[in-house]
Fold this protein.
Amino acid sequence: MGVEGIGARVARKEDKRFITGRGRYVDDIKVVGLTYAHFIRSPHAHAKVKGIDAEAAKGMPGVVDVLTAQQLVDDKVGNLICGWAVSSKDGTPMKMGAWPAMAPDTVRFAGQAVAVVIAETKNQAKDAAEAVVVEYEVLPAVAHMTAALAAGAPQLHPEAPGNMVYDWAIGDEKQTNDAFGRAAHVVSLDLTNNRLVPNAMEPRAAIAEYDEAEEHFTLHTTSQNPHVARLVLSAFYNIAQEHKLRVVAPDVGGGFGSKIFIYPEEMVALWASKKVRRPVKWTGDRSEAFLTDAHGRDHMSHAEMAFDANHKILGLRVRTHANFGAYMSLFSSSVPTYLYATLLSGQYNIPAIYAEVIGVYTNTTPVDAYRGAGRPEASFLVERLMETSARQLNVDPAELRRINFVTQFPHQTPVIMAYDIGDFGASLDAALKAIDYAGFPARKATAKQDGKLRGLGFSCYIEACGIAPSKAVGSLGAGVGLWESAEVRVNPVGTIEVLTGSHSHGQGHETTFAQLVAGRLGIGIDQVQIVHGDTDKVQFGMGTYGSRSAAVGMSAIFKAMEKVESKAKKIAAHLLEASDGDIVIENGEFKVAGTDKSIALPMVALAAYTAHNLPDGMEPGLKEGAFYDPSNFTFPAGAYICEVEIDPGTGKVEIVDFVAVDDFGRLINPMIVEGQVHGGLTQGIGQALLESAIYDDSGQLVTASFMDYAMPRADDVPSFRVSHTTTLCPGNPIGVKGCGEAGAIGSSPAVINAITDALGHNRIEMPATPGRVWEAMQLQQAAE
Amino acid sequence: MSTVKLTVNGRAVSATVEDRTLLVHLLRENLNLTGTHVGCDTSQCGACIVHIDGRAVKSCTTLVGQVDGAHVTTIEGIAKGDQLHPMQAAFRDNHGLQCGYCTPGMIMSAIDIVQRHNGDLDEHTVRQELEGNICRCTGYHNIVLSVLDAAGRMKVAQAAE
Amino acid sequence: MYETTYHRPSSIDEAAALFASHPDAKYLAGGHTLIPVMKQRLAAPSDVIDLAAIKDLIGIEATADALIIKAATTYYDITQSSAAKQAIPAIVHLTTVLGDPAVRYRGTIGGSIANNDPAADYPAAVLALNATIRTNKREIAGDDFFQGLFTTALEDDEIITAVSFPIPAKAGYEKMRHPASRFALTGVFVAQSRSGDVRVAATGASQTGVIRVPAIEAALQADWSPAALDGVTISADGLMGDIHGSAAYRANLIKVMAQRAVQAAG
């Protein structure tokens, strides 16, 4: 390994453009003849569209056209799809309500588009939008799951009676009930997992261009997976053929899942660019992001855990209601099922698990994957239940976890997942030591003297990442395979380009992927260029989400590198008159082991391309591709401990210490890994303390801007104490597990467990805002 | 429509634009200085922060008329040729950025913070002073380290001048 | 934002004349209230008259009895003013916890008071310190100035020129910040005048905007100490309740913030 190889804490290659203002995000791009789109959106959560009068608007200054939903239907643009088929426990398929990119007859959430104005400037489009008259017949709306499931509730979709998407289950019901029958103790808990708005700082945007002569489209868009976008746009939406559509995701300002999906705005921009025969740009503003970016979480659960007399877990029973919003977004069906319930075993030996999940339509923004996607909901449920159980059983929470930890690997859980490796006790021990667990009672006493309530909470989370083995997810209903692709091109001068199907929108792939290549060849990372995000440049790939880019994306590069190295060694051996089995690669040179004979990489590359002197029968060139399909998920896991102090006068929670010990397997760049953890922790803390998408009963989003939706700021969070334990992942050649989501998955239960410890009772929901904590304290005082 | 004249990154510029034009749009659309970003519509996120006459302000909440005659510095104008501003270097060295979208506003704010406090900063102060800049990626941990690091570097740079 | 016409007069008279000829105009100082509202198309002034360049509207001076802050003085300049720090440190403290640094560079005391946002900080200081609002037409007592949410005694064309705060014997301000907007979820300004009168004002809490808090005034009049408020109960009647805090919570905050403000005032 060179100094810039795997494990090196090198500064990021991509940073220079970002710190000098030379990043190139979609809205930064201009093309000749550009027009600007502004959508006309329903102010109502549920209404019939009776008519649209756009005549006055069409005559306004700068207006190119006003396009309506009906025109989209007339042009046979396809409805949005959900790409993962999940069936109810009775075997019936999920009930997918039709979702047109603009609503021709019925709007089902506030903010859904019904028409779009295309104009010469953004302001002209907005000015004209006010002149478009849309006549609505307002229908009764259901904004919350309980209302949607009530008898006689207004119905969203004719396809989905009772507003139910599915009634799904996993695990063995009888075995689980039997376990509860034998239990010495049963602990139960009702939990709400609050709805969140992803709020990547860059709002979504799209620039669509249509070349009439070539019948070819180009779409620049804020996407985590441009190839998937191209596939879906061509295969399902009938807007462009796949080979006649180039999708480019340039610099993308954060995703967190919300930029996986292909949204109506991109579809309409693409369609409109052909319609108006001009390039069309749409840049969402923050208000549109709140109303139209897929939201995250939003579960209501009842959970019970059965223990034997020795506090060993016998079984877990869960019933969860998951809010889908008004439509089934692209991967929405998988989030509360295969990404959630399959993680309900946590880090524990649980012999029997049965979980039911009821998917519910409401007149709200669609819900889909957001950082962690199902796994934060699982860890919140399991870890809140473990902490509550420890308190009810009067056992130390660390000890209760420890006696139930999985310690033998591989371990098959009752809910599909087969954990390959881990050392949960090691992470917990490290966290206990870091936080000085033994010293907590004294810290609590000191806080009490200062008039503060101090509490400590644990979270021992596990997640399934490296998404995912294609065959496995295919058998569970996924519409795509979840492998990844790579191509390694060694140029004639010995510099290297790596084309990856992964996409970086903050993760630093341009650095970490280069570290893998540079380390293997013993060259500098500046000799390696990572190319991603453009379907014209890069072979088909699956993109970045589910903490998959290291475990799957880099493994594909690893495989391609093996092929490149194998061929290069043959060339070197030929030129050095040695056996290719004797060639070793060091410091950018191919050496004959045990001799002083060597040849530098550029000379090998040049030989490959001049082809003047290659081994007999060898093709010229030095470029290899690989597809990597993982054999299993990876299982990052860790132990988080949070200490809080509550100001009883205001109910304000201060996080006074936060220790995170993660096992991510091999670390490529520890600096970047730590950064991922910091960011994830803050999103989890945001969920626990600050963030909540709240709808009123009529379906209006009350928290529709940063004025009401509390984003974590620098003074809301502490500095974190992050460290690692390591068990190398046996499932991929690098030994890496993934680190992008862990912080968001593990942190919220630790925070709430600390708050409930400080309060002395469990009656607090996320987000534990000062107002709510203060109310919870009054409950306590009333009880006393 | 009005014609405004101002100095941007040391260069005299003039533009004839609608009076409703915001400084951020003048920078991005007319001057092609796209390093200054828009991240919200409620004047809260700070992605649009630039220096106007040496003070870090939100260019999304500034009409072009308000900066007629002013000196504006953007993220594109703080490095000296190839030599990064110490704050830029500190953000890179401390991994103070991920997606990069909030970064220009964050750096422009941070320079102002260090200058206002004459480089005497602690973690608590930096966190409070960053109230007007929202980052969704970093959890602020490394941003705080970057600002503290840069405060030291800026002192050294100042002493050297 | 709708198209508008921007003006930058250099004198108060010129500003008033512009307003007289453009009846749908609005005054602008820092712009951090008006511009966001215009961006959302919730305000459509035909003309925007920027007061920030009028030199007569900028500056801070302290007399023996009063701290006079001219209307277009920015928050930042108030936080840097040695005269203000010496005369009424509580005003400076209030200003340092108002908005964020970028907002403080642009926002002005006149703009804040004229807007009378129910969660703004300065109205509490004006009311508790019994300040006088000076305009280009008259002087308005603080008690008469605020008339409910976003409503003041100002006439449309009237320009605040300065706020005159009588220098108190003691004063303090504490606020609980709204978790999202960072405005005051509840803020309380306590003041004891040199003649010993106690006035207490709360912002962010009431459905009607800034209010006096007689129960706390009475308790502090009898005994200027945080402990004097231990037995005081604030009624939740008429207070705001929303997703960020119930009326009962805000009632509690009035008391707690008042105690902390007294503590800070010394």
Notes: The first strand of chain A starts at residue 35 and ends at 41. The radius of gyration of chain A is 27 Å.
